[in-house]
Amino acid sequence: MTVAAARSNGPRAEPFWYAWGRGLMGGRRDMTVHSLKRRVGPPAEPAAPEPRPGIDDLAHRTERVAAVAALHADDVDRGARFPLEAITAAKALGLMGLMAPAELGGEGVSLGEIADICYSLGQACASTAMIYAMHQVKVACVVRHGVGSAWHENFIRRLVTDQLLLASSTTEGSGGGNVRSSEAPIVYDGDRISLVREASVISYGAEADAVVTTARRDEGAAASDQVLAVFPRADYSLERTIAWDTLGMRGTCSAGFTLRATGETGQLLPEPYEFIHAQSMVPAAHILWSSVWAGIAAAAVEKARKYLRKSMRGGAGDLPPSAPYFTRAKASHRALRALIATALDRYAALEADRDALMALEFQSEISLLKVDTSELAVQTVMSALRCGGLSSYRNDSDVSIGRHLRDVLSSPIMINNDRILANVAASALLTEVSGTIRG
Ligand SMILES: Cc1cc2nc3c(=O)[nH]c(=O)nc-3n(C[C@H](O)[C@H](O)[C@H](O)COP(=O)(O)OP(=O)(O)OC[C@H]3O[C@@H](n4cnc5c(N)ncnc54)[C@H](O)[C@@H]3O)c2cc1C
Questions:
Q1: Which domain holds residue 238?
Q2: Ligand 1 atom closest to Cα of 421?
Q3: What is the CATH number of the domain that holds 352?
Q4: pLDDT for 100-140, tens place per residue?
Q5: Residue with CA at minimum distance from ligand 1 atom 29
Q6: pLDDT, tens digit (0-9, with 9 covering 90-100), for 211-224
Q7: Residue 437: inside a domain
Q8: Whose CA is nearest to atom 18 of ligand 1?
Q9: Are 146 and 269 in contact (CB under 8 A)?
């Protein structure tokens, strides 16, 4: 069954992805639609209230998507092509709208659970994981700041029922990674709005079902006076202006486009982007991107472990001299995961407190998370490479680190660490060093 066919089935007692899942599980005898429901969804009884599926169920669905992603990862990388199979599987298993509240059809899943999905996918296929992470960053923004707005609530319902894939457009023209500055303005005509934007990077722009974009509030507004707008696919056209042939993250297909969109004023999120940026965009992006990079690093560490075990089998049980690099890789990977876990705990504790989220202290912490995790992720993959030596340097070995290294090298430049460090420097001056270890 195709996506279009699945979507045009009309009212039904079960979400379309269960039926669609028949195709996904087609090759496996033990995976009938009934066992799929039992394994991945709420009870089949239509009248029963649908409970929020438990973490085990989510883990199972994630595992299945990761398996599909891993199967196609090399081909996606080689061809710099969109990981259609994995994203189709994620849609089929209902992973796109997880964070939507139950009242709007979602499962009310936390950012921490989404981070675990990104981590698992990162081990399988970095491009799939980053696409999923970028999508969920936009979901986090729309869910947190759109609930209460009729247009956005409808959109969130559609996100869940149609399993929409949301793209992000923040990078524009000559502005590079300065997300808090927009060139193109929203133009108003009564209740109607339009936007023409030179979007120099929109990952999976051609494959997305909607785009969530920053824009200058109006023609007279300053570059930093921004709004966040949601445009479903029917509301915009994309004209490709820049191709995507990169070292890594090749499957994200992050080409440049001229984005031409029209819609209604209700599509603008009610709050200024300044608040969305601080409370949702940066925390979700930095935590979820970091989880993807931790996943890439985990895959590299596992390759190093495999190399060591093989060497020991072939060398009378002795560890090879490169073994300390494995220890280093494990240690930096542990530090990387600990940083993400701490940030998740901090965000969960402050989530409901807008002032605390906007405070200099949290903003510095969450900005620097990205700098620290990207550097630790690169360091971990490099240690894994040095552990495996030539075997890991080769592209044709089962312990090759090449793809992981190329993918993880995108992390310091995806919103450049230098830019973040320069931005945080001034505010860092204003906060004293903590007097306690946990403070
Ligand atoms: C895999 C991937 C996917 C992406 N997907 C998207 C997407 O879907 N949508 C989107 O909008 N964008 C996307 N981006 C773009 C991303 O958000 C940033 O805009 C982009 O990485 C910035 O690129 P840049 O290096 O050209 O620009 P800049 O950030 O301008 O950096 C250019 C250079 O200037 C230096 N520099 C800049 N500012 C400072 C400063 N203040 N102090 C010191 N040095 C500075 C940097 O060190 C760097 O060398 C993606 C990027 C990647 C890598």
A1: 168-267
A2: 42
A3: 1.20.140.10
A4: 999 999 999 999 999 999 999 999 999 999 999 999 999 99
A5: 177
A6: 999 999 999 999 99
A7: no
A8: 177
A9: yes
Do 137 and 175 sit in the same domain of this protein?
A: no
| Ligand 1 mutation pick, 370, 371, 413, max ligand atoms within 8 A of CB | 413
Domain boundary among 252, 267, 282: 267
| Amino acid at the residue 161 | T
pLDDT tens, position by position, 266-276: 999 999 999 99
Residue in the block written with tokens 């699945």: 6
In a domain, 29, yes or no: yes
How far is the centre of ligand 1, averaged over its atoms, from the C-alpha of 410 (Å)?
A: 10
Same domain, 154 and 215: no
Residues 195 and 237 in one domain: yes
Look at ligand 1, atom 39, and give the residue with the nearest C-alpha.
Answer: 419
Q: Tally the domains of the chain.
A: 3
Q: How far is the CA of 412 from the centre of ligand 1 (A)?
A: 9
Q: Which of 135, 416, 420, 421 to mutate to test the pocket of ligand 1 (most atoms within 8 A of CB)?
A: 416
Question: pTM of the entire structure?
Answer: 0.89
From 132, 164, 196, the end of a domain falls on: 164
Query: Residue 318 falls within a domain, yes or no?
Result: yes
Indicate if 13 and 155 belong to the same structural domain: yes
What is the pLDDT of the chain when averaged over all its residues? 89
220 with 290, same domain: the answer is no
Residues 210, 64 share a domain:
no
Residues with CB under 6 Å of ligand 1 are: 130, 134, 168-171, 176-177, 201-203, 249, 252, 254, 410, 413-416, 418-419, 422
Which of 127, 197, 419, when mutated, tests ligand 1's pocket best, judged by the most ligand atoms within 8 Å of its CB? 419
